[in-house]
Amino acid sequence: MAFKSLLSIVSVVAALQGANAALTRRVACPDGKNTATNAACCQLFAVRDDLQENLFHGGLCTAEAHESLRLTFHDAIAISPAMEAQGKFGGGGADGSIAIFPEIETNFHPNIGLDEIVELQKPFVARHNLSVADFIQFAGAIGASNCAGAPQLAAFVGRKDATQPAPDGLVPEPFHTPDQIFEPLGHSVLR
Predict the structure, then answer these.
(1) 0.90 exceeded by the pTM?
(2) pLDDT in tens, 60-110
(3) Of the candidates 132, 119, 136, which has an alpha carbon nearest to the alpha carbon of residue 161?
(4) What is the DSSP letter of 155?
(5) Catalytic amino acids?
(6) Count of Cβ atoms closer than 10 Å to residue 83 Cβ
(7) Is 166 exposed, middle or buried (0-12, 13-18, 19+ CB in 10 A)?
(8) Based on the number of CB atoms within 10 Å of its own CB, is 165 exposed (0-12), middle (13-18) or buried (19 or more)?
(9) Alpha helices, H only, 55-100
(10) Phi/psi of residue 125, nearest 5 degrees
């Protein structure tokens, strides 16, 4: 009796999963081998394949994968609504400024060493029709996916590239407390 009940539940779950998959429309990408839920995402498969083959050495969890993820954080955290509220430019967050203005931002103390991954990524940015801002975030997500135990990060596109560098002092140092990290964002962890 228990087996029949279990079999019934498994059958219902399988039918629901099949129905859900049928409701999610997919488009065939021009490459003839990939599908996506949004046609605009089709261009990302070529970027992914190029990154995996030529930057991450066949999809490995390499130093380049680690540094690509570090680059996403250092680009994105450079924003301060608190500075903006004072009438000052507070950075643009995940806007690619660290790679667009590397001679400035990679010299900020917390960003030391990121000049190498910025240089390695330049040819990839040049080959693909993505904003620098989107490329940095996408490369970080792909790199992280190569590392065992790492989460699969969602990468969204549509960012506009920076028109000026982020100000120094927005990227935290390893010794900063959570309050010091979140203070430029106008938040306190202890509230």
Answers:
(1) no
(2) 999 999 999 999 999 999 999 989 999 999 999 999 999 999 999 999 999
(3) 132
(4) -
(5) 74
(6) 17
(7) buried
(8) buried
(9) 63-76, 81-85, 97-100
(10) -60, -40
